[in-house]
């Protein structure tokens, strides 16, 4: 399963999709050009327990590092994962 990214200039998401169905998604909104707010993460029941949410977050972190964007996680899942994973914390505001 491939993680895809879409961004409309203000909001976007990292997601896994097959056909017309989204199985997992991490949604964010930009607050200016260099600050991203993670709003929500959702993973389909069929994929739970496989680390898919963490993979979405890792893809997001790779993206913001390249773009030099800082992250504010409001999503409870993202917030908890950042707290556990010191290797990702360099992108936090």
UniProtKB/TrEMBL annotation:
Xref: PROSITE patterns: GNAT_YJDJ
InterPro entries: Acyl_CoA_acyltransferase (IPR016181), Gcn5-rel_NAT (IPR045057), GNAT_YJDJ (IPR031165)
Residues of the N-acetyltransferase domain: 6-93
Lineage of origin: Bacteria, Pseudomonadati, Bacteroidota, Cytophagia, Cytophagales
Protein name: N-acetyltransferase domain-containing protein
Source organism per UniProt: Algoriphagus iocasae
């Amino acid at each position: 399963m491939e993680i895809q990214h879409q961004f409309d200039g203000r909001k976007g998401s990292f997601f896994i999709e097959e056909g017309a169905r989204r199985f997992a998604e991490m949604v964010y909104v930009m607050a200016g050009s260099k600050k991203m707010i993670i709003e929500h993460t959702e993973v389909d029941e069929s994929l739970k327990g496989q680390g898919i949410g963490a993979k979405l977050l890792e893809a997001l972190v790779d993206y913001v590092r390249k773009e030099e964007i800082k992250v504010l996680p409001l999503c409870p899942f993202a917030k908890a994962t950042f707290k556990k994973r010191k290797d990702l914390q360099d992108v936090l505001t």
